[in-house]
């Protein structure tokens, strides 16, 4: 089995998200550590994180996959943007410590013309400034669509970041199905080959979570436009095969499909149905 859930808004606090996901029928979720497009974080409510942790234990939730802000760019050519990104990352990881044992996923960054190697260097340098031995969060680099100057569209780029990071024990990868497809990895015709390539380049022991999306565009389009499950170019059969793939068993699958609550509930149950062999 896998764990399945979607993005939730942190608006009413941590425990409230757990209760919402339980009511949706899921057993993991993602949330933005702050407004995804802006900068602010919410005040922590005392006891709230602990309440969520006990709910997760009781309901046998899988690990959560928090998501860093889209505005965070650790390898921007703009020094102020880069400094802001580092500060966001540091504060986000500090906050994650109240929810020990979960994941923090972020977009590695866009090198904005500095070149791929410079981007990779700067991302690793930032991670080396804020990660420390004994931290209770595993940091995940998200596989990207390779749009514009994005770093992380190729598995090799993520490998190069990992190689430069000191705290490798707390570092992994989140595979986004829409992104890898858009980046040119054919998970429809050859899912085993793509996972084999992931293993050869990065190592499957670094694969901790999945963003589970269909794509509006064909393989290799480098677009990054998500679609509802089964309504895009990846399609239901291929997505089902991935959800049931033994290599991905036990991982949290997070829906980032364009849906309202009712749509997410439908997709969560769709995936649960696959698992029950329907
Ligand atoms: Fe993302
Ligand atoms: Fe994603
Ligand atoms: Zn995306």
Please sum up the structure shown.
This protein has nine helices and twelve strands. It has helices spanning 14-24, 48-58, 79-96, 116-130, 155-164, 177-183, 191-201, 236-243, 261-275; strands at 3-8, 30-31, 65-67, 103-106, 109-110, 138-142, 150-151, 171-176, 207-212, 214-215, 226-227, 252-255.
> What's the gyration radius in Å?
18 Å
Query: Which regions contain 5 or more consecutive residues with pLDDT less than 50?
Result: none
Structural category: alpha/beta
> Which strand-content bin applies to the residues?
15-25%
CATH topology value = TIM Barrel
Which descriptor suits the 3D outline? globular
Write up this protein:
By secondary structure, the protein is α/β, with parallel strands linked by helices. The protein has a single domain, classed as TIM Barrel (Alpha-Beta Barrel), CATH 3.20.20.150. The chain is 38% helix and 16% strand. The protein has 9 helices and 12 strands. The strands form 3 sheets. An 8-stranded parallel β-sheet has the order 2-1-12-9-8-6-4-3. Helix 1 links the parallel strand 1 and strand 2. Helix 4 crosses helix 5. The longest helix has 18 residues. The two termini are 14 Å apart. The model has no long low-confidence stretch (mean pLDDT 96). Zinc ion binds next to helix 6.
